[in-house]
Design brief:
Layout (H helix, E strand, L loop, with lengths): L2 H8 L2 E10 L2 E11 L3 H13 L8 E8 L20 H14 L4 H12 L34 H14 L2
Helix pairs in contact: 3-4
Length: 167
């Protein structure tokens, strides 16, 4: 193998996606972007997750392992903050304050809370414009993002912050 070819294959990234179901109902899913050397370990971990899930043992597991043709683009996540309160009204008022200070209209925030409180289980995420108008083509399904991951450092930092915040 030539030196250039060896160097180009060393840094290959793969998207690994798993969906598990039991009697046709979704029970578990996972995905991430991994170095080629980690794929075997991740596939095993995702398989165990599907077979040992608290919602039951999957009777169907779909796994997609796909080599990425381009280097993943890295972006920063939004800042994480914890509000220590047991009062739902305080949480809502704080969320409104934080979001409106970022330029989102109070109407949009109220519409987001209203949509969340309807109680419909969506497969994806809601997308709203700055005025609170829903943008996704199917309002009951939402939108999904695929082929994404988190760096090890970011995952460790996030886990530490979540543990520190407590239940």
């Amino acid at each position: 193998m030539s030196r250039n070819r060896a160097a180009s294959t060393r840094n290959r990234n793969y998207s690994v996606r798993m969906r598990a179901s039991k009697q046709g109902l979704h029970i578990s899913g996972a995905e991430g972007i991994y170095d080629r050397n980690d794929v075997t370990r991740i596939v095993q971990a995702y398989t165990e997750r599907a077979l040992l899930h608290e919602k039951g043992r999957a009777d169907e597991i779909n796994m997609i392992i796909e080599e990425l043709k381009e280097k993943p683009r890295r972006i920063s996540s939004l800042p994480l903050c914890t509000l220590n309160t047991r009062n739902p009204d305080h949480v809502k008022k704080s969320a409104i304050k934080i979001l409106t200070s970022a330029g989102i209209t109070e109407r949009a925030v109220e519409e987001a809370f209203r949509s969340l409180n309807i109680g419909i289980t969506m497969r994806g995420a809601m997308l709203m414009d700055i005025e609170g108008v829903r943008l996704e083509p199917d309002l009951l399904r939402g939108v999904r993002v695929t082929r994404m991951g988190i760096t090890r450092v970011a995952a460790a930092t996030l886990s530490k912050k979540i543990r520190k915040a407590g239940p």
